[in-house]
Structures are given as structure tokens and as C-alpha cells.
Write a structure and sequence with these properties.
Elements lengths: L19 E6 L4 E12 L5 H12 L5 H9 L5 E7 L7 E11 L3 H13 L5 H17 L5 H13 L7 H8 L5 H11 L6 E6 L6 H4 L4 E5 L1 H5 L2
Parallel strand pairs: 1-5, 1-6
Antiparallel strand pairs: 2-4, 2-5, 3-4
């Protein structure tokens, strides 16, 4: 007989109480940096606003993050940011931001990224495109085949009413989202939050005194992460 499947292990993200920088030496010409923090427990009160915020701030080539970090300032090869929904109704939202940049531009890129978090630009044209992108995504989406069952299971896992399609709820809510809603969302959930930074880059190219300005630096080895 086959072995019994192990019990599912639930992982709950820890609250971030102080800024911390984890650094791993990796011999490459680019540094990959991810920063994150835990938000509040899952709820649906800001679902439509959150979706539009993600699209406006960090979700596409028209988003503030990409336009500022890559197109305007040339500080990153790629950049994105999103406020993520947990995998079940008992989980927490998390904010994650990712950049890939040249080793010698990491400090400037991290500084610029945090400026965008704390002083988010207001651009009505980008906002309208973000809102329309969310509306169009629902308008053109189709749930078929196994997607029907997976959608039902997702509704159960998240505590949604299986007789009330979320797509319909959101499609009706998106047009009412305003730029003020986006600004308020940023102020309440993003601005001024403590963060964990994870950097994978070439140690000999790093200015660790400058890096320490973002938080306590903890150097790790690949063995610490992968166990070999």
C-alpha cells in the first residue's frame, strides 16, 4: 500500500516589526531584490479598490512602478509590485515588490522604490487605463471545463457565496472606484510600512553601509536557504 499523504502544513506570514535586509552572494551582473510585508487579515471590503490599485501601481507596463523605475529613471530591467490575496479565508494579505537591476544601481533602485510607496504619484490617465483593464479582463474572461470546479472550490475556500459570482460583483464595483480610493488605499495599507528586503547579488559589488540604511543586514549563504 502507498504511504498516507502527510498533513497539509499551513504557513502564516509573520508580522514585520523592523526593517531587515537579507543578502545572499551570487556571482551575476544583476541583483534581484524582493521586499515584502504582511497586511491585515483577509476580507472583501476593499477587493475592487485593491484590484485597481494593483493594476495602477505595479501590475503592467502602464503601471507607476514600471514607468518610474524602468522607463523614466532607468533603474531596473524589470519592476513590479502587488498587494496579494491569501490562499484561504484565514490568511493575511501580503505586499510584495520585485526589481531586477544592475549591481551598482541597487541602492538607488531601493530608494526610488520606497519613494513610490510613500509618495505615490497621482496620474489620472494611468488610473483610467488601470480601471478599464480590470473591467475588460472580466468582460473577456470565460470559466470553462475544470475551471468551473476549481472556481467552486476556490469560492468555498475563501468563504464566498457560491451562488453570487465574484466576477459580477467586481464588474459592477470597478466603475465606482475613484482615484481618491487608490490614494487612500496606499496611505492606509502601503505607505510607511516596515519591510523585509531579500537581495540576491554580487557581494563584492555591494555597498553594505548604504544597504544598512534600509534595515539590519543579515548575510546568508545558499546553503542556509537550500540546505546544501
Amino acid at each position: 500500500m502507498g504511504k498516507k499523504a502527510p498533513a497539509n502544513k499551513k504557513i502564516t506570514p509573520k508580522a514585520v516589526n523592523e526593517n531587515t535586509v537579507y543578502f545572499v552572494d551570487y556571482n551575476a551582473n544583476q541583483t534581484y531584490m524582493r521586499e515584502h510585508f504582511r497586511g491585515e487579515k483577509f476580507n472583501t471590503k476593499n477587493e475592487a479598490v485593491m484590484d485597481v490599485f494593483n493594476e495602477y501601481f505595479g501590475g503592467s507596463m502602464n503601471a507607476i512602478v514600471f514607468q518610474e523605475m524602468r522607463e523614466k529613471r532607468s533603474l531596473a530591467y524589470s519592476a513590479q509590485s502587488y498587494y496579494a490575496t491569501p490562499s484561504d479565508k484565514d490568511g493575511y494579505f501580503t505586499n510584495a515588490a520585485i526589481i531586477a537591476t544592475q549591481n551598482d544601481k541597487l541602492i538607488d533602485a531601493m530608494t526610488a522604490f520606497n519613494e513610490l510607496f510613500d509618495q505615490m504619484p497621482v496620474a489620472e490617465a494611468n488610473f483610467e487605463m488601470a480601471k478599464e483593464a480590470q473591467i475588460s479582463a472580466i468582460r473577456t474572461a470565460r470559466t470553462t471545463k475544470m475551471g468551473i470546479i476549481n472556481s467552486y472550490l476556490y469560492y468555498e475556500r475563501m468563504g464566498f457565496d457560491t451562488k453570487k459570482p465574484r466576477a459580477k460583483v467586481l464588474f459592477e464595483a470597478y466603475p465606482n472606484v475613484t482615484m481618491k480610493d487608490i490614494v487612500n488605499f496606499n496611505h492606509k495599507y502601503i505607505k510607511g510600512q516596515k519591510k523585509v528586503y531579500m537581495c540576491l547579488g554580487k557581494e563584492s559589488d555591494m555597498d553594505f553601509n548604504a544597504l544598512a540604511k534600509f534595515g539590519k543586514v543579515k548575510k546568508l549563504k545558499l546553503e542556509d536557504i537550500f540546505g546544501y
